[in-house]
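Researcher: Next entry: MARVEL domain-containing protein (Apiospora kogelbergensis).
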Amino acid sequence: MLSIVAMAVRGILLLAAAVVLGLSVTNAKHQVIGNPPAETSFGSFAGAFGVLVSLVGLAALFIDKIPAFLVMAADALAGIFFLAGGIAMTLALKSVGSCTNNEDKYQYFRFLNKLLNGGCVDIGNGKQSCGGGGLTNDALVGRCQRAQADYVFEYIGFIFSVAIIALGWVLHKKGGNGTRSYV
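Model: Predicted structure:
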């Protein structure tokens, strides 16, 4: 019974990691000036790492040669990456306040946010041009909502990483074999 629960948790973790990867890559594609922000790039890495770890964990369910400690350590690392990415995205979006409020100050905050505006270039006299021109409020709202969804799924990935480690520990102890894969 626990292995079925562990397989379900592993599947949800795989899904969350795939969503993080997809959202982060989509956000990175909107960067038209310069490189994507570090938070977006790290989100892509965390999502890809989470997908890889989830696939290894699923394989470990069927292949006893994969050491339980290796899978557990990879799950812990994925959880740390998800948590770090979620915190970084949350802090980077803190100045935005609201993704959907159309008051001028919120539109201004969205326009200045490095995760949302597509990059800025200095044009002199302390002024910047952001987003490569033609950046609409609707585009910023969409980018903001994708960035929020990205960090939410990073937190979900962290929660399910902790859950799979706990389930794995229980299954590993229940099995009694030190080389047996845990989840």
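Model: Note for the record: The mean pLDDT is 88.
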